[in-house]
């Protein structure tokens, strides 16, 4: 990803502030999660639109999208409040994803989706 020397507050201004319904059709949330994950999230696959018939039949949707979205917003706003000049990078996004995962567990008692941690590691290594 090219970060273009933008701060976290510039990149995430207005992001993760609406209520997400958890559907694949929410294009705003699609854009927000792509910003956070360096376009590494496979939006259709995490919503069950999988071409492999066996995988599609075994697909179990993640039931806590709304809460995860909210926790990402909380983590982003917390990171920005700590340092308004912090540059946007893969490491910063991975930290935010980790914080969102911790907030989700503490606030709601939910685990992040099983693919969240490997995705976070990919973003960190970007």
Model description:
The chain is 56% helix and 0% strand. It starts with 7 loop residues before the first helix and ends with a helix. It contains seven helices and no strands. It is mainly alpha-helical. The mean pLDDT is 89. It has one domain. The chain is globular.
The helix-strand sequence is: HHHHHHH
Mean pLDDT: 89
Number of helical segments?
Answer: 7
Helix proportion of residues, in percent? 55-70%
Backbone structural class: mainly alpha
**β-strand amount:** under 5%
**Beta-strand segment tally:** 0
Q: Distance between termini?
A: 7 Å
Main β-sheet description: none
Number of domains: 1
Shape: globular
- Unreliable stretches (pLDDT < 50, length at least 5) are none
Radius of gyration (Å): 14 Å
What's the arrangement of secondary structure elements?
Layout: H1 8-11, H2 27-36, H3 43-46, H4 53-58, H5 65-82, H6 90-108, H7 116-125
Helix pairs in contact: 5-6, 6-7
Which key terms come to mind for this protein?
126 residues; 56% helix; mainly alpha
Short description:
The chain is built from seven helices and no strands. With 126 residues, the chain is an all-alpha fold. The longest helix is centred in the last third of the chain and has 19 residues, at 90-108.
